[in-house]
Amino acid sequence: MIQQLIETWQIHNRINLYLLDSIEEDSTLLNTASSKGRNIGEQFAHIHNVRLMWFRESAPELLDSLVKIEKDEALTVESLKYNLVASGKAVESLLEKGFKENRIKGFKPHPIAYLGYLVSHESHHRGQIILSLKQSNKPVSRKTGFGMWEWGTR
């Protein structure tokens, strides 16, 4: 079962990347926001940075090869993808350790709930990204919209 939980995380992360890949490499599009909140690029950066926040608390050794995406940093699809892949792999390591020890330091109640927390949090931001794209008249394609639900093939 642990392997299935890790695989669930991997699928979820690939869906984040699938959405990111669907965005035109256009800095103005990454700078689009549907409200006064984070723009599209900042939403993806926030996902990465929250992962790092948890590593600082739960497994600081996983931070060795990861860097926070700073607020004033120029964001590109390529740089966001690179960071999300790297922090996604680190989440796998944290989950594997957590499932072995039956705990994620600093998180209650247990590692499976932590996985649920991450998926919920990041999916919330995917929704915000999709809304920002829609409101900027650059909605995700039907293929992408349906593709994000194809967990068996992602």
How would you describe the overall organization of this protein?
- With 154 residues, this protein is an all-alpha fold.
- It has a single domain (2-147), classed as dinb family like domain (Four Helix Bundle (Hemerythrin (Met), subunit A)).
- The chain contains six helices and no strands.
- It has helices at residues 2-22, 27-30, 40-58, 77-101, 111-135, 142-147.
- The radius of gyration is 16 Å and the shape is globular.
The CATH homologous superfamily name equals dinb family like domain
What is the distance, rounded to the nearest whole angstrom, between the alpha carbons of the first and last residues?
Answer: 19 Å
Major sheet characteristics: none
**Count of helical regions:** 6
| Tally of domains | 1
Order of helices and strands: HHHHHH
| CATH class identity | Mainly Alpha
In short:
The protein has 154 residues and is mostly helical. It contains 6 helices and no strands.
Helices and strands in order:
Layout: H1 2-22, H2 27-30, H3 40-58, H4 77-101, H5 111-135, H6 142-147
Helix pairs in contact: 1-4, 1-5, 3-4, 3-5
Main attributes of the structure:
single chain, 154 residues, mainly alpha, Four Helix Bundle (Hemerythrin (Met), subunit A), 6 helices, globular
